[in-house]
Amino acid sequence: MSMADQPFEPKIVAFVCNWCTYLGADLAGTNRLEYPANVRIIRLPCTGWIDFNLIIKAFETGADAVLVSGCHPGDCHYTAGNYHARRRWMFFRPLLDTLGIDLNRIHFAWISAAEGRKFQQTVTEITEATRRLGPYMNYRKIVEASA
Amino acid sequence: MIEQLRQTCRRLLEDGRVQVVIGYGQSVPGRPAIPVFIRRPEDADLLVWNDRCFTNLTAYLKRPEVRALGRPAVVVKGCDERAVVVLEKESQLIPEDVHMIGMVCAGMDDPPAAKCAACDAHVPRHADEVIGEAPNPAPEPPGPAQRYAELAAFMELPQAERMAYWMGELARCVKCYACRQVCPLCYCERCIVAKNRPTVIDTSATLAGNFAWAITRAFHLAGRCAGCDECTRACPAGIDLRLLNQSLARVAEESFGYRAGTDPQAEPVIGAYALLDQESFIR
Fold first, then answer.
1. What is the ipTM of this complex?
2. 3-class DSSP state of A13
């Protein structure tokens, strides 16, 4: 079977914070909650640390969707990192929208260390939604033009 | 107005209140006025004021070689001075560091440049002194609808067409970084594109690298951009960076009632947060 015949499996990059969502993902694992293997988890100290360039970099390197997830408001290990992040994303999404980047491929979530189930559900939903959207051809065109 | 400007320049230099006046000088007719740095009172006659004074001279305030000249006075329009207000908010300047000579401005170019059509600062509000007569009666100040008219029209396009537009535009970018150099608010001593461990943004002028640069440049000015449009004017490829700046300015205005550089008392929107920030996109 050639590559072209295989069903499309989206690549999803999840940037998660060390203190909440990473532990939520860990809990999903220890509870044997099955979630799609399409997600690549990248652990960072805090959502406030997550540089917007990482999201762009993910698309440049072939991601079809990105998830950014951290502690619920009020739960940040560093008190306010997630508040800063939230405000930044409020600006970031309209900028990407102006550039014509597909906001249906960039997801944000608050997932705590106790929410293994929510992690499972979120990742499953994103994977299914991205599978329906298909590969992110527009960004791949940009990358191919750059080769 | 020119004579009054020259007199002011002479007076400031003679009194020793400033060591240099950054103003506009005559270039070839029809071309943008060139920046001049007046250090002797007798040179004040080099200053001009006309409808070609596009340059935002406050961009020179960040340059070490300009700072080395001593305390500056800078000729500003109502749009330019917003950058100085932001610089003060960001602790890059203290008000005593610079003397602002505000010029009442009816709009640059004929017909007026895009930003001038929606201008609500014909008379500088924060300058140390203002030269010129305020228009009487004062024109109706334009509202947000006029400020973001071009952006709103652009956003009518479907998403795929917006992407196609930027792919075409940014393909022409040669990464000369003129947009950064003319920006009074791009003052990092070491720009992120100059950092290569790791390389965050592809430094060659590839389409992917150009997208990353356009996003980075605009986003580093989120909630800070004073809207002088110098980046767009300086771009040798004629890329309309104004649209990107406007999309961020619109968020600041619509979500936070904030317009960078208009109110020295207002709390900046980036680097700050509110517990009750309203969003609908987080699961």
1. 0.90
2. strand
